[in-house]
Write a structure and sequence with these properties.
By secondary structure, the protein is of the alpha/beta class. Helices cover 44% and strands 22% of the residues. It has one domain (5-152, 176-213, 265-276): Vaccinia Virus protein VP39 (Rossmann fold, 3-Layer(aba) Sandwich), CATH 3.40.50. The protein contains eleven helices and seven strands. The structure holds S-adenosylmethionine.
């Protein structure tokens, strides 16, 4: 049995509403990663796709266009606020089914040709059981193509704000290795062990450099106060408005160290590929 209750509450009550509030900035900064994911996944006309953690549905829309009216996208998420946005955005899309469910335990028919996700697979309490469930959703020979964040040391857009936040607020409470969260899949050996253990063949985890496209340096500083490890630390420490305002200024001042004038930031993700035997 898996129990993702904590993450489900987090994505409904904390992270989902925040994401929706700054949806434009989040979509813009992650657009290049979506291009990379789709270029590797190559969804084809007529295919049946299972998308995990579809959020507000940006990747879902592109998958639906790629598979066309003879194909279908089943997109799953636990966050009602994010799914509400996806439902509005995809209302006219006839080849999409949006499901509010925990992907770790939802029952799927074993018919999918492609399992894909942009950053929606790192939140399982028991990833081995979750990927076992997802494995059974695929037809033999189906492919898995997902992205997850690489280590924080290779992602200055997170490590720099986190360092500044720790200096001001103290460290986060200790976490178990690979605990559910954005960095749970930062170790290729661990990801390989999980996917292989769940039955997948041809597992590969490749670090890929990517560019995040910030709307502006001011917007990027705002994103750092809300999302990622620095945003999570501010929530954990229940930072008050004055502290948040102070850190916003500190994050903004540090940005030129790792972003260009147009708010382009270098980052690294893991491109994870595998196949159902
Ligand atoms: C970082 S967001 C990514 C959203 C979207 N894929 C994107 O890139 O814009 C992670 C998403 O995974 C979802 N999620 C977390 N745990 C999940 C679970 N057990 N089953 C399905 N979705 C889950 C969250 O609600 C959230 O929408």
């Amino acid at each position: 049995m898996t129990d993702n209750a904590r993450q489900i509450a987090y994505w409904n009550e904390v992270a989902g509403p925040k994401w929706v509030r700054i949806q434009g900035a989040m979509e813009a900064r992650l657009a290049g990663i979506e291009d990379m994911l789709l270029a590797r996944a190559q969804p084809r006309l007529g295919e049946r796709v299972l998308e995990i953690g579809c959020g507000t549905g940006t990747t879902t829309a592109r998958l639906a266009d790629a598979v066309g009216s003879s194909g279908h996208v089943t997109a799953v998420d636990v966050s009602r606020p994010m799914l509400d946005v996806a439902r509005m955005a995809l209302a006219a899309q006839r080849n999409v089914t949006l499901i509010e469910a925990d992907a770790a335990t939802a029952r799927f028919e074993g018919v999918f040709d492609l399992l894909t996700s942009r950053f929606g697979i790192m939140f399982f309490e028991d990833p081995l059981a979750a990927f076992g469930n997802l494995y059974r959703a695929l037809r033999p020979g189906a492919r898995l193509v997902c992205v997850a964040w690489a280590p924080i040391a290779d992602n200055l857009h997170w490590s720099v704000p986190l360092r500044l936040a720790i200096e001001r607020l103290g460290p986060p409470k200790p976490r178990a290795p690979h605990a559910p969260g954005p960095l749970a899949f930062d170790d290729p050996a661990y990801v390989t062990e999980i996917l292989s253990g769940a039955g997948f063949a041809e597992v590969a985890v490749r670090a890929e450099p990517v560019t995040l496209i910030g709307k502006s340096l001011d917007d990027e500083a705002q994103v750092a106060t809300m999302m990622g490890p620095a945003g999570a630390l501010l929530d954990e420490k229940q930072a008050d408005a004055a502290t948040r305002a102070e850190l916003l200024v500190a994050f903004r001042a540090a940005l030129p160290d790792y972003a260009d004038r147009n708010a382009r930031l270098r980052a690294t993700v893991h491109l994870i590929t595998a196949r159902r035997a």
